[in-house]
Amino acid sequence: MLPGDTLRHSNFQPQEAQDQPIYRAAGKGGKRVALTFDDGPYPGLTEQYLAVLEAHQATATFFVIGCRAERYPHLVRDMSSKGHEVGSHSWQHACLSKVNSLGAKEDLLRTARTLESITGKPVRYFRPPYGALGPGVMEAARELDESVVLWNVDPRDWTNPGPQAIIQRVLAQVRDGSIILLHEGRPGTLQALPILIRELRQQGYELVTLSELLSSSEKPSAAASPPQKEKGYRPPSVKETTYQPPSVSRTTYSPPQAGAGDKAPPAEQFPAPLPPKR
Question: How far is Cα 238 from Cα 187, in angstroms, rounded to an integer?
Answer without folding.
Answer: 6
